From TrEMBL:
<dbReference type="InterPro" id="IPR007214">
    <property type="entry name" value="YbaK/aa-tRNA-synth-assoc-dom"/>
</dbReference>
<dbReference type="GO" id="GO:0002161">
    <property type="term" value="F:aminoacyl-tRNA deacylase activity"/>
</dbReference>
<feature type="domain" description="YbaK/aminoacyl-tRNA synthetase-associated">
    <location>
        <begin position="64"/>
        <end position="172"/>
    </location>
</feature>
<dbReference type="InterPro" id="IPR036754">
    <property type="entry name" value="YbaK/aa-tRNA-synt-asso_dom_sf"/>
</dbReference>
<dbReference type="Pfam" id="PF04073">
    <property type="entry name" value="tRNA_edit"/>
</dbReference>
<protein>
    <recommendedName>
        <fullName>YbaK/aminoacyl-tRNA synthetase-associated domain-containing protein</fullName>
    </recommendedName>
</protein>
Length: 185
C-alpha cells in the first residue's frame, strides 16, 4: 500500500495497526463511524526521534509541512474553572490561543496546557497527540484550512507513527468546531 501523501516504507489502514496506537486512539478507530470509512485512516510508521514537526519535515520532506497538522491541548480559565480543549492547525501555523481560542472557550485566560496535563488527560504521548481519541466532552477546535485538505498528516497518539486522514474526517469527531483563522502565521 502507498500513502496518499509522503513517502513511507510501512503503510497500512489504521484498523490494521491498532497495536501501534495508544489505547484511546485504538478505541476511537475501532468505534469509528464517520462519513469517511475507517480504512481511509492510514497509519505510517515513522522514526520516534523525528516526531517533532521541524525534524519530521527535514527527514520526510518539506512538502509535508503544508499537508500536516499539529494537535495541541489548551486550558481556558474563568472564575476558578479550567476547561481543556484541543486545537488542530496546519503545522506551518501557530494556534491563536489568546484571541480565537480564548473567545471560543469563553475564558478570561487561555494557555497551552502543561505537558503532564496534556498527556495525562489524553492518554497519548507528548509529540504524538492527535484529535482522534480525545475525551468526547472536550471542544475540538479545527482550523478550516485543515478540513479543506484532501489528506492531512497528524499524530497517532505515539511519537512512533503518524496517521494520514482525509481533512473532511475531522468534521465527524466529537466536539469538533471548524474555525476560520484558528491557525495564524
Amino acid at each position: 500500500m502507498r500513502a496518499p501523501i509522503g513517502d513511507f516504507d510501512l503503510v497500512r489502514p489504521a484498523p490494521q495497526a491498532l497495536d501501534l496506537l495508544t489505547e484511546p486512539v485504538a478505541d476511537a478507530v475501532r468505534r469509528w463511524s464517520g462519513a469517511v470509512p475507517a480504512e481511509q485512516l492510514i497509519h505510517v510508521d515513522t522514526e520516534p526521534d523525528w516526531a517533532d514537526t521541524s525534524t519530521f519535515v527535514e527527514h520526510y520532506g518539506p512538502e509535508l509541512l503544508d499537508r500536516s497538522a499539529n494537535c495541541v491541548v489548551v486550558a481556558g480559565k474563568r472564575g476558578g474553572e479550567t476547561t481543556l480543549a484541543a486545537c488542530l492547525v496546519l503545522s506551518g501555523t501557530r494556534v491563536d490561543v489568546n484571541g480565537v481560542v480564548r473567545r471560543q472557550l469563553g475564558a478570561r485566560k487561555a494557555s497551552f496546557a502543561p505537558m503532564d496535563t496534556a498527556t495525562g488527560a489524553t492518554g497519548m504521548e507528548y509529540g504524538g497527540i492527535t484529535p482522534i481519541g480525545l475525551p468526547a466532552d472536550w471542544p475540538l477546535l479545527v482550523d478550516a484550512a485543515v478540513v479543506d485538505l484532501p489528506h492531512v498528516l497528524i499524530g497517532s497518539g505515539t511519537r512512533r507513527g503518524k496517521l494520514i486522514v482525509p481533512g473532511k474526517a475531522f468534521l465527524d469527531l466529537p466536539g469538533a468546531v471548524v474555525i476560520e483563522g484558528l491557525g495564524v502565521n
